[in-house]
């Protein structure tokens, strides 16, 4: 069986497109680094910590503490505070500055919403989907209230037909259950939807395992991970359902490259064959 990859430029017939939020629609990394630098400016000055060291520590500790949130060990606010406490402990193990990690985290979390921005290709993409009558959904590994506030901040809430967040439903990507829940809320068969995200395994592989088409948004043009030679290595065995999208993935560098049309606009059985070439 050939690898489940759509050829470059393939037009995908869909009823819905679902998106990740952070670093897919919203420049989360840029906002996070700006807010962190602002909140820790005085501390870093006192301790003479360079920006590179700060970023390295933050990313390492974020992976660890966010994993505890996704596993259910910590709630979202406890995760935020634990992450900042760990960061300050690494920066200042002797507690020379005696800063309260909760106050520093509050400043960081309050300021970050002023730094959130959309990538330039987002609104044109969502405008196209709206004009075509294609449903738009969100699946996010985060706290629901936090992400809905983020969507309102950047003006995306009006484009979204449904938003499913792990903090609300108790399951996170790449578990197929969260993808299934989102398409059920849209009233769409998984094979008639695609999911777009910036993380290969969490987003693309997760979507494929749930029976959706997976679109890897590779803005930084990172090397593509090795792709299994058999579709079932990623997707599981073919259950005989409509194969139009649910066993395909595509790689794009920008949302300008997302080629979709309403599924109703394609005729007969051509869609599956065209998309599989």
UniProtKB/TrEMBL annotation:
Gene3D superfamilies: HAD superfamily/HAD-like, Haloacid dehalogenase hydrolase-like domain. It comes from the Bacteria. Its cofactor is Mg(2+). One of its GO terms (molecular function) is hydrolase activity. InterPro entries: HAD-like_hydrolase, HAD-like_sf, HAD-SF_hydro_IA, HAD_sf. Keywords: Hydrolase, Magnesium. Signal peptide: none annotated. It comes from Nakamurella alba. This is HAD-IA family hydrolase. One of its GO terms (biological process) is small molecule metabolic process. Pfam families: Hydrolase (PF00702).
